Amino acid sequence: MSAVSSNKTSDLAWLLKGLSQEVPAIRGSVLLSSDGLVKATHGLDRDSSEYLAALASGFFSMARSACAKFDGGNEVRQVVTELKSSRLFISWAGHNSVIAVLAGGDADPGVVGLEMARLIKAVRPFLDTAIRPPAAGSGDRNR
Predict the structure, then answer these.
(1) SS3 at position 84
(2) Taking the CA of residue 46 as centre, how many other CA atoms within 13 Å lie in the half-sphere pointing to its CB?
(3) Could you give the 3-state DSSP secondary structure of residue 17?
(4) Quick one: which H or E segment has residue 39?
(5) Residue 11 to residue 102: CA distance in whole angstroms
(6) 10-32 pLDDT, tens per residue?
(7) CA 47, 105, 82: angle at the middle one, nearest 5?
(8) Among 7, 100, 112, 114, which residue has the fewest nearby CB atoms (within 10 Å)?
(9) Taking a C-beta distance cutoff of 8 angstroms, is the pair 36, 57 a contact?
(10) What gap in Å lies between CA 98 and CA 30, rounded to an integer?
(11) How far apart are CA 118 and CA 124, in angstroms?
(12) In sequence order, which residues have a C-beta less than 8 Å from that of residue 90 and are 6 or more positions away?
């Protein structure tokens, strides 16, 4: 299984830019690790990117929990949230990776979902996130 190293992260922003060019209703997007760290972003400032990554990580985690409880697995394909004037799409993007896309409320969910799936299918091995080693000193703290 391949993993994206930290020095490749900035190289992935062009993929998100290409997605926005395919679907003009997309206002911003973030590729994130499943624990909420931004790997690449397009169309959003840093604070908004980090906020969206944390939010997407939480939504995706809750969806996986629901899947385990009600569907007998943990394979979440997509989470869609309809806001007053926006739509948020969150999709699994590879090992420990998620893509979050913020689109206008008039965005066609079928088109956004299809283009996200095409992107993920085309470059999925490059979207994987390697598991980070435990932090130094993170051993058993109860001794």
Answers:
(1) coil
(2) 0
(3) helix
(4) strand 38-42
(5) 21
(6) 478 888 999 999 999 999 999 99
(7) 80
(8) 7
(9) yes
(10) 8
(11) 10
(12) 56, 59, 60, 63, 78, 79, 80, 81, 98, 99, 100, 101
- Residue 37: exposed, middle, or buried by beta-carbon count in 10 A (0-12, 13-18, 19+)? middle
Neighbours of 69 (CB within 10 A): 8
Task: Please give the structure tokens belonging to residue 69.
Answer: 């409880």
> Taking the chain, what is the end-to-end CA distance rounded to the nearest angstrom?
36
Residue that is written with structure tokens 């109860």 in the block: 142
Structure tokens given for 115: 């283009």
Q: How far is CA 109 from CA 36, 59, 87, 106, in A?
A: 23, 18, 8, 9
Q: What is the pTM of this model?
A: 0.80
Q: Are 13 and 119 in contact (CB under 8 A)?
A: no
How far, rounded to the nearest angstrom, does the alpha carbon of residue 7 sit from its chain's CA centroid? 19
Q: pLDDT tens digit string along 41-98? A: 999 999 999 999 999 999 999 999 999 999 988 888 899 999 999 999 999 988 888 9
